[in-house]
Amino acid sequence: MNRRTFLASVGAAGLAGVAGCTALQFGPKNYDVGMRAVAFDPSEYTVSVGDEVVWTNTSSRAHTVTAYENSIPEGADYFASGGYDGEAAAREAWREDMGGALTSGQSYRHTFDVPGRYDYVCIPHEQGGMIGTIVVEK
Prior knowledge:
The protein is of the alpha/beta class. It has two helices and eight strands.
């Protein structure tokens, strides 16, 4: 086998392998907000009252979805991965044993019933600017 034939066959095999990996990694999107290394994607997402939002950890790092308690509309349900009743409880759980962590591929869901702006954070990556917003319209 000459050098060009060998390189062509190796290159084709390599591309086929990468194509398979790409299909797995970037397959059909079944979430609304992804979590990258230190960012929610998208950082702002708009829905209608009654819609459910699904966050999925699309990175290899552990993340949380934790509402800023003082930054949700009056009368709205508090939300946090791990099911905590408030921001202080969510932060304490994270500090104690990574409570509320979503590992790679895991998802968290919340239904928004009150219109307004909801700001939230990933606790371990807050210093890096991993903050997101859900806007709920009537």
